[in-house]
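Hey all, sorry for the wall of text incoming. These are the two entities for the joint prediction.
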Amino acid sequence: MTITVSIDAMGGDHGPSVTIPATLSFLGKHSSARALLVGDQRQIEAILARADSAIRGRIEIVHASEVVGMDEPPASALKNKKDSSMRVAINQVKSGQAQACVSAGNTGALMATARFVLKMLPGIDRPAIASSLPSQTGETLMLDLGANVDCTAEHLRQFAIMGAALESALRHDPNPKIGLLNIGEEEIKGNEIVKQAAELLRASDLNFIGNVEGNDIYKGTADVVVCDGFVGNVALKTSEGLAKMLVDFLKEAFNRNVFTKMAAAIAMPALRNFKNRIDPRLYNGATLIGLRGVVLKSHGSADALSFETAITKAYVEVEENVLEKITERIARLHAASSTSPIP
Amino acid sequence: MTITVSIDAMGGDHGPSVTIPATLSFLGKHSSARALLVGDQRQIEAILARADSAIRGRIEIVHASEVVGMDEPPASALKNKKDSSMRVAINQVKSGQAQACVSAGNTGALMATARFVLKMLPGIDRPAIASSLPSQTGETLMLDLGANVDCTAEHLRQFAIMGAALESALRHDPNPKIGLLNIGEEEIKGNEIVKQAAELLRASDLNFIGNVEGNDIYKGTADVVVCDGFVGNVALKTSEGLAKMLVDFLKEAFNRNVFTKMAAAIAMPALRNFKNRIDPRLYNGATLIGLRGVVLKSHGSADALSFETAITKAYVEVEENVLEKITERIARLHAASSTSPIP
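and here's what came out:
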């Protein structure tokens, strides 16, 4: 099967200068893939002029006359930018011209537009933002990372179902371990909504391992960590801030004087190994999950390597039939609850 | 003025083998300070037998026959352990025998007992857990770190007032910058409670700089970051987990082969400088703020250096009149609101 990915070529802080080289590199590695580059035709053509002709043959340009600003309110983007590269890129998924869409544009606008154009999967009330973070045992999939700030217990259950389906599709693990993000204090053990969500998850057919704490994200205690979008976003941003500070402190420690600078040169292979292992560019790309279509959100400041990671994630999600697997899992759940004897 | 600190000698994972050496070291550095060591008299005396006599002269043993277990439910500790080292240590503050109390015992029990024995400061509904984290510009005081999982906007306002008073007392900054922890998504800009809290803070006399995000904690954007205890605890534990993973990855990178091991030896001064800068033992000690008394909670697994940091924090809070400063600030606020013209 040929998989076609629709790329919002204008999105992100750097636009086509990043999205197009990333697309070319991705196509170079996936010989059966195709790409739709959506945006300003002239700009895109100018950059594509230098492309390898075999790869160029698997690219189609779809013109879009507008661009959604990085700070533009989602409602305004939805109402006023009907010919934006973001909107048109999503339309390609709706019409079946593409099987997935990738954008580095503003998250709120992407979420609102994708939801409006593609609609939700049956049985899912709200989309969530899911992404993998590095852990001591591999990777931890975490959701929601910021789409939903006020969640009910039922929303958290739906996030768990979607997370389980995504994780099992991507890692070929039929029964991934699901943890509910909570706090350790014995007296209280989390707020009311989290307590109710834990009950719903215990009653589900998911492999629910119970509450996990913030440090478990990086310990790899669970394969999937479920939380509301407020908490998830704080955890993610806090991690970004701490990682940046630690890397800066490490640089400063090696830049203190001529001896430490010499040591840095000698330690370079080890330091590079360390750096590569935590390179955020290798984790870029968050799935907007719960929609009737595969949509990946790249970090706005992504460079070409980083944006390519997001495109590859979109490709793999289509290849692994993530949407069908989520839909099946929800249908199975509904069937189970409608046939179960009334207590 | 002589400051006397009451030490729960039995609390924490290691009990007297950590708390007593930490107390001796602290007293060695603060020649006018005194300590009450609360717990099993025989055990304490045995360890103190080797102490320097000048320091020993500034220590009094207060016998307590029971110990609160690290996993004991707070309600059970409160009801059944009236002669616990934790409870008796707090009683010393209530009776005026000591001006502050330090415990590495279980947080829930310490919080419940301190609140029951000492009561709240006037105008404060709930105690919060406050602690400083390292940042790129110095330190960031953050609260609440886990005492309150369901907060109202008014609670968040009270945390901001207490945090401002603590920060200004400790850092001699009359007008510390207060940030409200939120998420960046334009469309939603936080949940309802955080939105209301922002309005209350804008109307207050605090130096409120607006919303901050998770990464701002380590960037040092605000001097004080305010959030509910669920979010704060997740941010703190996530940070602990990430820091541990990164340090482990760094060790692994230097342990890969004989060349990287040699590089590690050469890089040791720089690596040690890095390690010392982020040593969590130098940040140990969270203030249970809002009580009519200074109570510091040490990490349960603290070693002697770490526990000494918590004792020193307690000492400094008394020296800097933190309680009086919080009380004044709240009184000023109440006076302002009762004399302000009705809108």
